[in-house]
Write a structure and sequence with these properties.
Blueprint (H helix, E strand, L loop, with lengths): L35 E7 L21 H18 L4 E9 L7 H14 L1 E12 L3 H4 L2 H7 L3 E7 L3 H6 L6 H14 L2 E8 L6 H12 L5 E6 L7 H7 L8 H17 L4 E3 L2 E3 L6 H7 L4 E4 L4 E4 L2 E5 L3 H11 L3 E6 L2 H12 L6 E2 H8 L9 H9 L3 E4 L2 E4 L7 H8 L7
Parallel strand pairs: 1-2, 1-9, 2-3, 3-4, 4-5, 5-6
Antiparallel strand pairs: 6-8, 7-8, 10-11, 11-12, 13-15, 14-15
Length: 415
């Protein structure tokens, strides 16, 4: 049974490899009337966690004025290519965005408001470590315009936090959570489960405690061993043994049962929320909407164009100086790629996909999107539900999502 993917709430869809330079956009793919999302990547961390494969870097010092100028220039470049849009969400991800000076956060939000119209209910999220140093900034971040915070608690056990390489304690984390709930309209936090040696009873106790904190959203991820991380090295040496797939499936089922009973059903494979508390920003990704990504390593989907910024902070700054933007990849997406991405992202959601919408977005004829025979077989097994052109993966099918996607998606790559 395949492992369920994990990682912070802000995990981005990956851009396709390739190199390119700034160029004109192809015609819009029917998404121009939908709200736009803006992702801002702050790449700096105090230390690198052993499970993390995100674009994060440890630096002794950061020139805030230099980074403000760079991010503003990068934002202006994207705004010029996406004029007249309504911004539905902003997400400050990382790295550790709570290390950003609140004045910088405010400047970026204010400049975004100059480039685009803000939706009346715009969601502005910032990822934060639950340390006392960073929670002291919460009041100023709220004044800067942040209205939703995502806390990286990761565990409710001090020994596990040490194993995960986290710098905070449980006591410190819960104090930060209290401050966040006092300062922000919406709060979510992450927990990592399926850790080595974690039993069903262990996770049940921890999740019961987490559900008692009263937040409207939880991101609950299974620990996955990512290439290039410290944990991968330990697994290769035989010094770390991941949880087996059957146990992971049992933990996944328990998680869905408990969150559903508590009124936070899963709306995506690893994200759970009360009605109306879903992450609007991440829904843009999963529903295959347009999003601009700025900052080192940030990915974007600009109409029918995949974009990616230089990953290394120093290379990103050099590109800004040289070109006025941080782009390293800007590649047109053919119809087949767009359709495939829309299917792969949308089937992660409890709401599923609408084949007619994907056909309109991508230009791929509706009959060519899925393998009808495979879909019918999965429906008979109770792993997929279908009503006309609407398809969803059932709760029973979600632990097998990777295998289901491989069978259902029928699109052939363009020649």
């Amino acid at each position: 049974m395949p492992m369920i993917g994990g990682g912070p709430e802000s995990r981005r869809p990956q851009a396709h490899p390739g190199l390119g330079s700034a160029s004109s956009n192809p015609p819009a793919s029917g998404r121009g009337d939908e709200s736009l999302a803006l992702y801002i990547h702050w790449p700096f961390c105090v230390s690198k966690c052993p499970y993390c494969d995100f674009n994060s870097h440890v630096r002794e010092g950061v020139d805030v004025a230099q980074w403000q100028a760079a991010l503003l220039a990068d934002m202006a470049h994207e705004a010029a290519l996406l004029p007249g849009r309504t911004l539905g969400s902003i997400f400050f991800g990382g790295g550790t965005p709570s290390l950003m000076p609140p004045a910088l956060v405010q400047t970026l939000i204010e400049q975004a408001a100059q480039h685009w119209r803000f939706a009346d209910d715009i969601e502005i999220t910032l990822e934060a470590n639950p340390s006392s140093v960073e929670s002291a900034r919460f009041a100023d971040l709220a004044l800067a315009g942040v209205n939703r915070v995502s806390l990286g608690l990761q565990a409710l056990d001090d020994n596990v936090l040490a194993f995960l390489g986290r710098a905070h304690s449980v006591t410190e984390a819960l104090a930060a959570l209290d401050i966040a709930q006092d300062r922000f309209a919406r709060v979510t936090f992450d927990l990592i489960y399926a850790r080595p040696g974690q039993s069903l009873a262990d996770w049940e106790r921890e999740l019961t405690r987490a559900l008692g904190f009263g937040t409207g959203h939880l991101s609950l991820y299974q620990l996955t061993i990512e290439p290039g991380t410290r944990f991968e090295t330990l697994v290769r040496r035989g010094e770390l043994v991941p949880a087996d797939d059957d146990h992971c499936a049992d933990l996944f089922d328990l998680t869905r049962q408990m969150t559903g009973a508590a009124g936070l059903p899963a709306y995506e494979i690893s994200n759970h929320a009360r009605i109306g508390q879903q992450s609007r920003h991440n829904l843009t990704y999963w529903r295959y909407g347009d999003y601009a990504g700025i900052g080192p390593g940030a990915h974007g989907r600009r109409r029918a164009m995949a974009t990616e910024r230089h990953r290394k902070p120093e290379n990103y700054l050099s590109a800004i100086t040289r070109n006025g933007h941080g782009l390293s990849v800007e590649r047109p997406l053919d119809a087949e790629t767009q359709a495939t991405e829309a299917l792969l992202m949308g089937l992660r959601l409890a709401e599923g996909i609408d084949l007619e919408r994907i056909a309109q977005l991508s230009g791929v004829p509706q009959p060519s999107l899925i393998d009808e025979a495979a879909t019918d077989r999965l429906v008979a097994l109770g792993l997929v539900e279908r009503s006309g052109q609407h398809i969803t993966v059932t709760p029973q099918g979600m632990p097998l999502l990777d295998a289901i996607l491989a069978e259902v998606v029928a699109i052939e790559p363009a020649a």
